Request: fold
Amino acid sequence: MAHHVPSRLLEACVVVGASEDKLEDVFQSLQQADGTTDMPLLDPEVLQVHMPPFVTKDNSGVTGGPGAIGRVQHRESFIKNKERLPLAPSDPVNARSGEGPTGTKDVRVPNDIDLMALSQLCFPGGLQVTNEPKEGHFHFLVLTDVTGNQTHGVVLQCYRPFQEGLMFSQNRHLSFKKTTKLYTAYAICVLSRHPYYNALRDCLSCLLVQLRTCRLSEERVEEFAAKLSLVPIPPPGQLHVMFSLRPLMVVLPSREDKDLPAVDLDLHLPFLCFTSEQILQIITGILMEQRVVFFSADWSRLTLMAECFLLYIQPLRWRHPYAPILSGQMLDFITAPTAFIMGCHLNHLEQVAAETVDLMLINIDHGTVSSSCSESVDIPDIPSASAECFTKRSQSLQLQYDLEVCHQAVGADINDVRMLRRQWQQDLNLHIQNITLELIVNIFRDVTIHLNYEHRVFNSVEFLNNREPADQPFYKRVLETHIFHSFLKDRLNRKMDAFTRMEVGTLPGTQKRKTVCHSRSSTMQEMTRKYSTDPDLRPTQRLGVSLPNLGEEPHLSLRRKSSLNKTPSKVSRKPVKMFQLPEFPPPTVYDCVLNYYKEVIQLLGKAIFHVPPEDSALLARHFYLRGLMNTLCSKRLDALSDFQSLYKTDIEIFPGDLVKALVDSLEKDERSRADGRPELRWLISKVTKDNEIAPVQADDPVKKFKLPDSHMQQEDFVKRIQESGVVKDVATIHRLFDALTVGQLKQIDPELFCSFYTFWKETEAKAKDVDLPAGVIQRLDTNEWVSKLSCCVKTNQGVGRIAMTQKRIFLLTDRRAGFVEITKFRDIEEVNISFAHVPLLKIPSLKIRSSQRNEVFEANLKSECDLWNLMVKEMWAGRKMADEHKDPQYMQQALTNVLLMDAVVGCLQTQKAIYAASKLAYFDRVKNELAMMVPKTTSEMLKHKINPSLELATPQTVHVLLYTPGQFSYSEADGNMTPKLWCAVGGGRVVVFDATSWSMQQNSIQVGSHQLNCMLQLDKDQVCIGSQDSIIYIIDTRSMSCNKQLTEHRHEVLDFALDERSDKNCQMYSCSVEGTVILWDVSTLKVKKQFHLTCERLVSIQLFKGTLWCCARDSVIELRKNGTAHRKMTPPQSLRGVPTEFSSLLLFLEMDQLWTSCSDSDELCLWHSKDLTEPVLRVQLQHCPGVNCMIRVRNEIWVGCRGQRLGQGGVRGKIYIVNPEGHRVEKELMAHADSIQALCSAEGRYVLSGSGCKDGKIAIWKVE
Reply:
């Protein structure tokens, strides 16, 4: 269970030096040489190894859990145990009481650490004997095992006299000899699993102070190591751990993210040694997985410099051999053929440069970067735009601490001075991390556009083609590396890390919208850059975008003010809290250590008590530390209780492996007591269940898109097309399959697929290369692009080429103007083909009638005429439907269909090509179908449609909608403060839209894996979501991550109600399907009250002036404050003869009204609040199969109904607007092709409706 031991600072403490036997030999050889011999170098050896645990509990019969204090044997010299010879018991030097003649003893050594290599790395330049003492100095190590796990070390080298008054054993007789002083070096190496370089150096500095006044002894080193073993590692977040070792206060900074290492070194060191251009060159070499060697005459600089550069490329991670320090005996490592990062002494630079090839040689001391075969490094430059931004940002760094504090008074306390220096360094580190992260984001920003998440495919060719030509050599090299491959895996797993947060956060306002990964997306980006003069519109404008408006309509937005502050906010350090450990006890005495842990637990308890309830992140970190301390004390139930509280507060730092080990170590009586506590019983059940069902996840590789080499049936064809990035929508791909298989077997051979894909890419390349005159560009909209260009043809407007964009058709002429607009698609009245008769020929021509022109446009397109006829009609139909349905995606889909038609005709080249292409004319075929017709009332009130399934292959049901108001005056950096629309779709997926533009802000927040039933905004920073799996998930609206869970419910959670009568004591009710209602304190998320209703499937709950109303299938219940039923009503008598059930409840108690609906009835029932025996009125909803949901909007009732069946398998969902005062239906709205599943109100100004999976869209309605 060693790997489940709670994380401590110390892994091991190792003392390295020369053995007494070797020192005796050196002394005798020097005496014989009479001082004419140079001082020798010795081979270092491991003298002592100290590892936790260090305490002994005598006569203990208690079974310890993971990491518990237990029995341990006394430490002694590693060498004495490793090389003990059979000695007689009378030996005065080596005899040990109680040992046998062989002197064997159990000596623990660190796992996965090569002690022989460690001894060399502690003295990489050799162990020196001198005739004068030297000052102690430090250097730093990183040891990597075969599995890639790293151990970090800090080495202190000291000198001590070894021969004056030294006792030597000669022929088993002791002798003393007074001679000239000689000094030998020894090293104390502290090893840790965490890179706390500064902290461990501080600890060793405190030990060095003691060693200056007393001799080195095994007991002193053991006591020092034992103290460090009592220090816990802080969890990720903003809680640091501080402790005193006298004379210094030592701080352990926490990690910012659980997947990133702690930063406890000075990140500005490379900026002191290299120019910005050289730093970029080194970063480029690392990204390209070059063989990199650092050189310095100071061993301490090697590791620190290498670690800085690895932190600069985060979140990308180095995956190859890494040895930042090589001793003289290890120089042959740099001849390895694989990529590596290593470090050598500067003395070896010339030798390495002369004897190796293609190594990047970095001279830290002289600030140079060269190659082993030339003075310069021959690698591609980093992308110029990213490099320019990095260089400019780097110039703003303030690297001189003295300039920062020259106005301050001199501190009298060394720890105060160190604290100021530490705060300055932390701020500088944060600034540097933001600059380097911005560099990585700028380099790889567009990678996600070319990923297929379903099939885990990266279209590298497409990505490369969209890079600037000068940058392509860089990307060609980087895309083949293991570093980049690992980075792709994180993107495909939708990892919400610092890269993702900055990528989203630094997009211009017009770009914070998620789009379909379309095959032409990159082309449209290039065309937009070419046409646009607005910098905000230059980056990626792609097909499939959920646009906020149609045509030239003003923005449909909830913004009250348009005061956007686009000034970038300064990098600010998050507030940091310190938890100070008490003074260390005698660390090798069991009772003292136990009391120390108890004192830490008490201090953590006091800290938890004083943490403000709203600061849940800080509270979680204290629970984490207290859980570790209770684990070490074998207080397993208390530890589980702390981890249960942690699970509810911040699941991101929940130590699942440790909790599993705790559960496994529970004794019978402890398990019985745990089962008696519901919260622990749930935690144990979850941990056990997760362990049983957790699959062994294989390393799922990222595939590169490859053309198929075998015949494809429809299912395989769908997969291949999606992988290629041509199109994602399954229905569209099915139509493409039908088009390509016209007149043949329903399978596609690889040659046809290759021909189609090649034509598609060639056409795309041509679209990129369209060279439009400046005058033409000015006539086009900023987000407009040319998608199709005809051959040069004769028209009644002159000779030229017909160009099609997503908005219009125009003629490119050779005349001076160069631009003749034919028509916008929304202005078309008629399209047909006619024939121009010339002698012996009938030339087909395309005629287009526009409402904006008196003259019919006619073009002699010859062989292209049939294709252009299909394409123009499809775009016309798409525009017509987009305008009628207020859904811009129809227009984008029509353009996709047109581009596919062009590719089909181009690859088939047969007489049936036009007929095959007509299979893709979807909108031209369905535009007049009944299900696609939009009534006048609907058209007047419908403002817009958005698609939460935009990045998915098939539409998903919209289960829940929630609008959160936010603030309308905000800076772009505070995008989380904007109004938002939260949408829950299938499989626990939450999509977030920016309600100021209705653009997709977050395309996938994963909340469990079950259906989500309800959502509620707790406060400006938290949204809670109820799930089918009985858990209430809490989403942090700033990080857009789910880091809290409430687990008190045991069945499906169906609804929430918020009681905001008192701001100081805001409360939330939640209900689950079996009738449990829980009252929560919102500030602490603790249960205040819980009661159970006797009913059949509790559906929803509502509050009115503190009174809770509960709607179940079989009844509506009014509750007293103590949770007991006050009044109850059942479905109307006339409905009881048929299987019916309540589906929703609305309260108009100020009008003494209650409204109920049933899931299988076309009636709304009005009840008088004073008499719940029978409804006083019924309002019939015509053609309504049943009601799914109702909401109150101002003084109206909006009713969402189940889908009404139409002919040919169609479905139409209706929304009814009911006047509760007039008791009548005011309006019927029809804009969804499936049942209405969710309704929500946006401040009473808009209503949003979500539908089932056949439609899967959200409609935005204007409230009159």
Observations:
- The radius of gyration is 37 Å.
